[in-house]
Amino acid sequence: MQIEDEAIRKDCLTIAQLMEEITTAKAKMWGTAIVGVGDYKLVKN
């Protein structure tokens, strides 16, 4: 899926870049509509 609105697309890329800088992890697609950055594992005690 592509984001047709140029302003929204630019905002999304900016957010992804900021998250990569903060987490030091690369952003990646999780499915077709979710972008994830880094790993977080839930551990049940």
- The level of helicity is 40-55%
Work out the count of structural domains: 1
Averaging pLDDT over every residue, what do you get? 88
Q: Alpha-carbon distance between the termini?
A: 39 Å
Assign the structural class, choosing from mainly alpha, mainly beta, alpha/beta, alpha+beta, or little secondary structure: alpha+beta
Dominant shape: elongated
**Major beta sheet, specifics?**
2 strands, antiparallel
For the secondary structure, the number of strands is 2
Specify the number of helices. 1
- What is the beta-strand fraction? 15-25%
Order of SSEs: HEE
Radius of gyration (Å): 13 Å
Spans of at least 5 consecutive residues with low confidence = none
- Sequence of strands across the biggest β-sheet: 1-2
Identify the notable features of this structure and list them briefly.
single chain, 45 residues, alpha+beta, two-stranded antiparallel ribbon, 2 strands, 18% strand, elongated
What would your notes on this structure say?
The protein has 45 residues and is of the alpha+beta class. It has one domain. It is 40% helix and 18% strand. The protein contains one helix and two strands. The chain has a two-stranded antiparallel ribbon. β1 and β2 form a beta hairpin. The model has no long low-confidence stretch (mean pLDDT 88).
